[in-house]
């Protein structure tokens, strides 16, 4: 059996002493993908909400893109989890017989609430009028598709548009705490595990939330640039500069929170400190110091900070933003990696380490994770084709 | 503007939505939604199992781990254990060396020369059957549950194999069985207890280092052992109310 073979390889790499059952690293790359994807959803949505609630004009061209990005990733957000289960066909048990004391059991409900009540409804109200118009303009099957999407409501009076706007605004307001709930909750899944000192911190939900916002904003920035470029349109620099400003602010908060967590650990230095210190300086050195902190945080922070004071020409700024968004997205991926994989590399006996090997060939988790990361981009492409934000009717006044 | 024929109103939509929601509620009534609560406090004065291990008596023969593997069909590979034995060696220069090759099943070798050893001992490990077990607390479907006798058990016909309990156990007592895709752990040989038989590890121990019994029974050997010896549990700071008591437990043991 391949699995057993890989365990023998892991056994040969054990350093110090670990409990025998710990050689198998239970939560693999798929579980890294899970908070990463959920974070992108929450972050993209929060950017859209900021735009709507605070009526930030500069961000307007990204509103629908943010929402559709959030939806694309939300649709597959459970897939890494389900495909990781030992018994994937039993996943529905979590929804019909949830165990009340389990932090994980509530995920299905938080997820459904967010998908059905917040995202789908908000998008529906935002696009309802346009879908009615499109259903009249199109012929053949698309006519019926759009009509079905309007749920056969074909009211196009100015009054109905006003109502759409009002309800949409209300959903956005409900949506912000929902997005906070969604990702803060994912953080709680880890933060509530008292057996694991690397996870068990009350800061975890807050850190997850802010890192989610950082990654979501970076993703929207990236997608806005790519989509506009593909459409051969002009990228509006005021849009990019505004997104970058918010990315900068949230990144500062995120970095401060994570630093606080680390400073607290270092200063308090409880019984787990020695092993965690070896972990961070050893097995996590590359993913923590280089990727998460260096490339994912410090470089973007310094560059964005610099751009707040001095603005080079548009072309250079575009290139900088594109590179920075990829840096931030990579950094947050490694932040999830350091939490999920890092938390399992050291033994709960505090006497040793196991290892985790990433290989594209032979390990289904890595391949599947890639699939679950790529699929949302295809969904997004489809959604942008079906519901093109640039073909929407102008907002009513 | 829309012509009347096409212009379905919101009222119409609400009607449809309402009847759909009504349908969902109706189906839910036929097959009610069940919340599960698998971590119950014990009721009454029935059996309340606990285990004690006398570290002074353990000779590290690994019979307990061997017997457990056979009795419970645990996969015969060095990565899956319901119970195992650890060897602790503390050297004169205060180095702590721990090992558990194949869970101690094949016995132990002492690599440190005798004159360099400050102290050495064996620590048999198994599920702590905590009264406030973090593993059953986190199970999303209640497949991990506490039996009325205070044992943390798993219903493998129901377990979804998410591995959350494996993460939540502070003692490393759970593993995912790759052949079944579900979690596995010590049951204190529940199937044997039900028939009035002793757990396999208790039977196999040649020195009587392992005792189990009913903590509610003031006459039991277990109760007497805990009373007479200075016993401690592993990781008491985690407040799991472990029911695995060790006599002569060194503070180096985690």
Provide structural commentary.
Chain A has 397 residues and is an all-alpha fold. Chain A has a domain at 29-241 and 360-391: Formate dehydrogenase/DMSO reductase fold, CATH 1.20.1630. Helix content of chain A is 71%, strand content 1%. In chain A, α2 packs across α13, α3 (63-76) packs across α9 (204-230) and α6 packs antiparallel against α8 (158-191). Chain A is globular. In chain B, the strands form 4 sheets. Chain B has a 4-stranded mixed β-sheet, with helices on one face. A 3-stranded antiparallel β-sheet of chain B has the order 3-2-4, with helices on one face. In chain B, strands 5-6 form a two-stranded antiparallel ribbon. Chain B contains 7 helices and 11 strands. Chain B has a single domain (49-136, 145-247), classed as Alpha-Beta Plaits (2-Layer Sandwich). The relative contact order of chain B is 0.20. With 254 residues, chain B is of the alpha+beta class. Chain B has helices at 10-30, 63-71, 134-138, 164-168, 190-193, 200-204, 221-228; strands at 49-54, 83-91, 96-99, 117-126, 144-146, 152-154, 175-177, 182-184, 210-214, 231-232, 244-247. Mean pLDDT of chain B is 91; it is low at 1-6. Helices cover 22% and strands 20% of the residues of chain B. The interface between A and B is large, with 61 and 65 residues.
């Amino acid at each position: 059996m391949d699995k057993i073979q890989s365990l023998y390889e892991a056994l040969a790499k054990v350093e110090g002493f670990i409990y025998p059952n710990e050689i198998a690293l239970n939560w693999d790359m798929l579980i890294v993908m899970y908070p990463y994807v959920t974070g992108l959803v929450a972050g993209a949505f929060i950017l859209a909400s900021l735009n709507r609630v605070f009526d930030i004009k500069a961000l307007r061209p990204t509103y629908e893109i943010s929402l559709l990005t959030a939806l694309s990733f939300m649709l597959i957000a459970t897939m890494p989890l389900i495909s990781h289960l030992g018994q994937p066909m039993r996943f529905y048990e979590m929804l019909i017989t949830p165990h009340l004391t389990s932090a994980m059991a509530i995920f299905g409900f938080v997820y459904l609430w967010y998908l059905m009540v917040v995202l789908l409804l908000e998008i529906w109200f935002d696009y309802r009028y346009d879908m009615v118009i499109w259903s009249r303009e199109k012929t053949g099957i698309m006519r019926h598709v759009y009509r079905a999407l309007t749920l056969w409501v074909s009211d196009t009076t100015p009054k109905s548009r006003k109502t759409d706007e009002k309800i949409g605004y209300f959903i956005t307001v409900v949506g912000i705490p929902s997005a906070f709930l969604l990702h803060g909750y994912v953080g709680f899944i880890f933060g509530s595990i008292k057996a694991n000192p690397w996870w068990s911190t009350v800061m975890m939900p807050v850190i997850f939330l802010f890192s989610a916002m950082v990654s979501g904003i970076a993703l929207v920035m990236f997608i806005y640039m790519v989509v506009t470029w593909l459409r051969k349109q002009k990228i509006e620099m005021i849009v990019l500069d505004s997104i970058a400003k918010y990315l900068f602010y949230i990144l500062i908060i995120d970095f401060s929170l994570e630093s606080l967590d680390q400073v607290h650990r270092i200063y308090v230095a409880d019984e787990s400190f020695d092993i965690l210190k070896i972990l961070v300086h050893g097995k996590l050195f590359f993913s923590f110091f280089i990727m998460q902190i260096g490339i994912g945080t410090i470089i973007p922070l310094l560059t964005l900070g610099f751009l707040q004071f001095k603005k080079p020409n548009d072309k250079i700024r575009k290139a900088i933003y594109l590179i920075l968004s990829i840096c931030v997205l990579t950094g947050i991926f490694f932040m999830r990696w350091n939490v999920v994989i890092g938390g399992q590399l050291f033994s709960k006996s505090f006497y040793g380490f196991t290892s985790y090997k990433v290989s594209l060939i032979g390990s289904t988790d890595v391949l599947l994770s890639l699939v679950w990361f790529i699929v949302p981009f295809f969904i997004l492409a489809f959604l942008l084709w079906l519901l093109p934000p640039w073909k929407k009717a102008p907002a009513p006044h | 503007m829309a012509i009347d024929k096409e212009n379905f109103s919101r009222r119409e939509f609400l009607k449809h939505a309402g009847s759909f929601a009504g349908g969902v509620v109706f189906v839910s009534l036929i097959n009610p939604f069940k919340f599960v609560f698998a971590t119950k406090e014990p009721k009454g004065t029935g059996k309340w199992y606990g285990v004690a291990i006398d570290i002074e008596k353990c000779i590290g023969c690994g019979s307990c781990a061997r017997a457990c593997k056979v009795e419970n069909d645990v996969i015969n590979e060095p990565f899956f254990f319901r119970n195992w034995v650890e060897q602790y060696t503390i050297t004169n220069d205060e180095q702590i060396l721990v090992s558990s090759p194949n869970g101690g099943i094949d016995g132990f070798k002492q690599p440190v020369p005798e004159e360099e050893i400050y102290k050495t001992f064996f620590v048999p490990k198994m599920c702590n059957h905590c009264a406030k077990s973090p593993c059953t607390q986190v199970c999303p479907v209640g497949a991990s549950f506490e039996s009325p006798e205070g044992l943390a058990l798993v219903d493998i016909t129901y377990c979804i194999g998410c591995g959350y309990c494996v993460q939540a156990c502070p003692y490393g007592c759970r593993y995912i069985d790759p052949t079944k895709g579900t979690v596995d752990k010590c049951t204190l040989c529940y199937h044997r207890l039900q028939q009035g038989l002793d757990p396999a590890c208790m039977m196999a121990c040649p020195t009587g280092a392992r005792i189990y019994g009913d903590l509610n029974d003031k006459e039991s050997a277990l109760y007497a052992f805990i009373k007479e010896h200075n016993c401690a549990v592993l990781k008491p700071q985690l407040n799991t109310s472990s029911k695995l008591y060790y006599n002569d437990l060194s503070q180096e043991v985690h």
